[in-house]
Amino acid sequence: IAHIYCEEVFGIVGENFTFPVKVDWKVVEIIWKKNKDKVVEWEQLNKPTYFGPLYNRSVLMENGSLTIIDLKKADAGPYELEYWDSVKDHNLNFVLVVLDPLPEPTISCNSSDHKLVLTCTADFQGPLSYTWKLNDNPQSHQEQELSIPLEDVNTTTKATCFVKFSQMERSSEIPLSHCLP
Hints:
Elements: E1 6-12, E2 17-18, E3 29-34, E4 37-43, E5 49-50, E6 58-60, E7 66-68, E8 77-84, E9 89-99, E10 106-112, E11 115-121, E12 129-134, E13 137-141, E14 145-149, E15 158-165, E16 168-175
Parallel strand pairs: 1-9
Antiparallel strand pairs: 2-7, 3-4, 3-8, 4-5, 6-7, 8-9, 10-11, 11-14, 12-13, 12-15, 15-16
């Protein structure tokens, strides 16, 4: 039985992306392919040879990982790392998903039932994590919505919403005084 390892990985247009490869053995030969087309080839004691659309935009690291510089939508797709450690061949498969840059989140607010309710939204293709911080409170809240009793609202307080996906994070801020009825 052959086990095929395939990991879905995410990159962002315009950023640099490195495949998460951890090769423990002394590698003798490496070949990276995209859609079965060779993009990098390296043999011990030689410099890597780059091919195709990644020719001027990629760097092969010593640990076998490949970094693509200035990621483009066209870089999305299946990648395969084949390496030989002088004992046997190894294969790692990845599917690279290239997403648009993370947008700045939008904060909306309304008051009802003696509470101020703040909602944070961002139009993005992937699952986001949300965090709220108030400048007069060190605690953070891990929800998309933040509810504050009206009697606890300080008009000098600012609320900041952080949205995060993978390694990217963006934020927006609103003074609570803008939200009061």
